[in-house]
Amino acid sequence: MSGKHGHKPFEGHMHDYEAHIKAVEEDLEYYRAKRFEPRIFYLLRRNVVTFSDLLKARVALKRKNQFFKPRKPEGKNIEARVRYLEEWLDEYVKGIALVSARAVEAMDMVTEDNRKERGDYDDFFKIKKKEHYGTLQERMVNLEQDLADYQEMLEVFVQALIKRGWSTREELEQRWKQLHEERPWAGGVIVAKAWIDPEFKEALLTTGREALREMGVHQGKVGKLVVVENTDKVHNLIVCTLCSCYPYDILGDTPWWYKHESYRTNIVKNPRACAKEMFQLELPVNKEVQVWDSTSDVRYFVLPQRPAGTEGMSEEELAKLVTVDSLLGAGYALEPSQQREAEKSGATPEAPRVRPD
Amino acid sequence: MEPNSKYKIGDAVMVAMENPTGNPRTPKYIRGKRGVIGSVHGILENIRDHRGIHKPLYTVKFDLSEVSTCHDQDTIWVDVHEEWLSEVRDDEKN
Predict the structure, then answer these.
(1) Does residue B2 lie in a domain region?
(2) pTM greater than the 0.90 cutoff
(3) Active site residue A245
(4) Residue B7 lies in a domain
(5) Is residue A243 annotated as part of the catalytic site, yes or no?
């Protein structure tokens, strides 16, 4: 994230290395099993690339021809290493976007194909995710190895695509640059405006994406957008039990827990118990819990309730109270004192990265 | 009301057990369950996601106790395409 949202990632101190490492583990397996491998399988099955293309590309690979540059941690302390893993993961995710964009276009692949290839609708085809064990140190070493291995596969795949004439190095470099452009995260400003402008709120709840256009925020284009409002009587939670549909074009990268199987299974079985266990959120008995199970055609987010003690605050100040979790019903917007406390101790949650369409 | 959509808000519907057409996007836990139409989205074009045009889409509201063994008075709202739904007649309602 650039500094546009008011803070940079990794500024201040990381408080919970364990949580950071868990998020990297979850995300890395998610992107390997849900994005990269299904697309490789898709292209192998259709003879766009072959296994022998990949083997030959690996043998022919020279350090100076490598597309992805090797990475090094900036320092030996644990925080530097965690940061290094997080940034490496981010490059891996961008790398997948890079290679699959070209290959997918070549084959006219749509998202639905990808879901079938990875077994969302059929357990037989489900790609197994790796499980993680050990001490924090051991898990970090394992993650480094996994990242190196997965990155190598990606590299070989790039080389094979070029060799087969699906893309050129120049085209990929151009795209690689575009992939490093980011938009500011708009979750906070959307909610803040809805809190202070009843007309906008009404438009947001009834017209979704249309309201964002009027506001001048990037609208996105992934399906229809529906915003559901938390009130004194209703608490909403968002899930996609089949895969992990998410309004990423507006809210940026999906939080790892949203993609996690335990959330996707349990939130529709026993919402209150799940919210309590996963988010330490005790939902009041006098509120009805409504869980929204999204399908790809409609993407949802929650308009959280405006916290007490925020009268007279500016739109900009209000925007800082809005967390990603509160936009999914996994939490409440922060109270001003909580936000000040977090800022003082350097524990302000990072705004998600919003990638270009 | 959306043109081309068979159901309207408040209609009682039942979800099919088996996939009627090959459009797989209906989670297992609501199959064979009863719900009520909560919103009508009509036909949504989503060319990046799937080929062709699906039937009209609805958000169907289920009582939690209909789809789970949990008895909290909460609700689950699920997006379902029209071919998965059938009408529940008055005499079949509980």
Answers:
(1) no
(2) no
(3) yes
(4) no
(5) yes
